[in-house]
Amino acid sequence: MEIASSANCDLLIVGGEGDLALRKLYPALYALWRGDALCEQVRIVALARKSPDREGFLALVKERFDTYNPSGAADPEPWSQFIEHLHYYPADATSAEALTGLQEHFGNAERGLVVYLATPPHIFAPVCRALEGAGLVRPSTRIVVEKPLGSNLESFRDINRELTSIFTEEQVYRIDHYLGKETVQNLLALRFANSVIEPLWNNRYVDNVQITVAENIGVSGRWNFYEEAGAMRDMLQNHLLQLLSLAAMEPPAHLSAEDVRNEKVKVLSCLRPMTDEAVRNNTVIGQYTAGAVKGEAVVGYMEEEGAEKTSHTETFVAVKAEIDNWRWAGVPFYLRTGKRLQHRLAEIVVEFKQVPHSIFGPLLQSDSGNRMVIRLQPDEIISLELMNKQAGLEMALPLQQVSLDLTFPEENERAAPDAYQRLLLDVIRENPTLFVRADEVEAAWRWVDGIRAAWERIGMRPKNYSAGSWGPSESIALVARDGRSWYEA
Ligand code: BG6
Predict the structure, then answer these.
(1) N or C: which end of the chain has fewer CB within 10 A?
(2) How far away, in angstroms, is 389 Cα from ligand 1 center?
């Protein structure tokens, strides 16, 4: 498939030797470059200070690329052409004086400039001021930031105030990498390009919606970071609520960034705030203890490297959310996410109501409703579960559940780009549809802050769960109380 060639645009990666840049950004840029999606003269400049010189920097990039690239080491010929575009600029990113030398790379104001802040948020403000002082903030400059965007509504507003004192909202691209995943975009196609689905997508036909993002990894050596965040702020506030907003939003008038984001923010603003009592009943938090994942023994959260003696940080959270609007009144949205769960899985499951009257009597069991499964990972699947008759001559009609597979054709799957490829290209093409607007982040924080404050007030503490399980048993009970169960393929 041909990708529309991108505009004349250069990139500056601040934090150019950090984990995000090495694991995600250079591989994505390399793939874009190989697909002719970057302009021929593109300059990609890494701003960092660890490597002594460009050779050292390039060796580090290559070493990490070869380690993490799913299809193995880079081909030597295209790689050597790619790195001709990759430059190293060792400097203090917070010093305007130090950054003035970047004019040598980005002096041509005609060309666009994408600045990716792959750094901790506490230096966003000084870096932006330094960029401004160095003359790099122009109308065509775009700034890309990624979570954690604050730890609550107030700290998000502080970060945002700093950013928008230098850049306009249109210049700020807030990444949530889940929005770059192929199936997430397919959800839009599924909902709004098919006339058979949208009429069923409401409280008349939908019984409940389940959103699961399960990981089997632990905190991956980031105990200190994770201890401050927890599953609610690390995953649910952003990735799960973004999935929820896309699954639940009204049809936008157009596929324009503003129309799509206007509809998403409306959903987030309709999330019902929870009283202390509701939080007690409708939320579950857990922390993993030692167990086994994929047949291997793993330690508990408190035994992870860098762990301290006591911690009340949740590594698992499940929430029953309700959306107070016409479409979704009365339909629970069950959300759950956690580390060290049984396996890696991200999916949205829409469970439809039972038929109003069964002419099949007990042959149509209570768990035989229709279901749409939209799986993002590990595999990308969209399937619709329907009932049909088993072949045979029996007098009664024996029923069975079958899956109608709407999965991408194989060649399409092979072409599915990594989320960062799609998102970087969208910044270059100045298409903010898949980026999160400030008011969406605010609405998500407002709802999450309310729940977290209630946890504090009622002294809610995480329940233990064994690594390799599906979280604390209370999470099963959360759904079972409503006469439902978590979907298991
Ligand atoms: C990040 C979280 O945003 O998403 C990590 O900070 C998590 O803790 C990661 O592991 C999961 O992303 P993915 O794409 O691997 O599901």
Answers:
(1) N
(2) 41
Which structure tokens are listed for 294? 């994929």
Q: What pLDDT score was predicted for residue 358?
A: 82
Query: CB of 207 closer than 6 A to ligand 1?
Result: no
Query: What's the rounded Cα separation, in Å, for the pair 410 and 412?
Result: 5
Q: Is the pLDDT at 194 greater than 60, yes or no?
A: yes
Average pLDDT over residues 183-212: 95
Starting at the earlier edge strand, list the strands of the sheet with 371-377.
Answer: 399-405, 381-389, 371-377, 345-352, 206-214, 332-338, 316-322, 283-289, 463-466
Distance 218 CA to ligand 1 centre (A): 11
Distance from Cα 97 to the centre of ligand 1, integer Å: 36
Q: How far apart are CA 363 and CA 194, in angstroms?
A: 31
| Domains within the chain, CATH numbers bracketed | 9-146 (3.40.50.720), 179-416+440-480 (3.30.360.10)
Q: Is residue 418 lining ligand 1, measured as CB closer than 6 Å?
A: no
Query: What pairing do the DSSP bridges indicate for beta strands 291-293 and 296-298?
Result: antiparallel
The DSSP string of 417-473 is PPHHHHHHHHHHTT-GGGS--HHHHHHHHHHHHHHHHHHHHHT--PEEEETTBSS-H
DSSP 350: E
Distance (Å) from CA 398 to ligand 1 centroid: 44
Q: Tell me which amino acid residue 434 is.
A: L
Question: Which protein residue's CA is at the shortest distance from atom 5 of ligand 1?
Answer: 234
Index of the ligand 1 atom closest to the CA of residue 217: 10
pLDDT digits (tens, 9 = 90+) for 281-336: 999 999 999 999 999 999 999 999 989 878 999 999 999 999 999 999 999 999 99
Question: Is the entire prediction scored with pTM above 0.85?
Answer: yes
Nearest residue (by CA) to ligand 1, atom 10, is 215
Ligand 1 centroid – CA 217 distance (Å): 10
C-beta 442 within 6 A of ligand 1: no
Q: State the alpha helices, DSSP H only, in 283-357.
A: none
Phi, psi of 382 (to 5 degrees): -125, 120
Residues known to be catalytic? 239
Strands 44-48 and 9-14: parallel
Residue 261 CA to residue 392 CA, distance in Å, equals 51
| H-run or E-run covering 29 | helix 26-34
The best mutation among 235, 243, 347 to test binding of ligand 1, ranked by most ligand atoms within 8 Å of the C-beta, falls on 235
State the closest ligand 1 atom to the C-alpha of 178, by its place in the atom list counted from 1.
14
Omega cis (within 30) before 378? yes
Query: For residue 483, what are the CA distances in angstroms to 260, 476, 486, 488?
Result: 34, 11, 11, 16
Residue 47 near residue 77, CB atoms below 8 Å: no
Tokens 């199936």 — which residue?
183
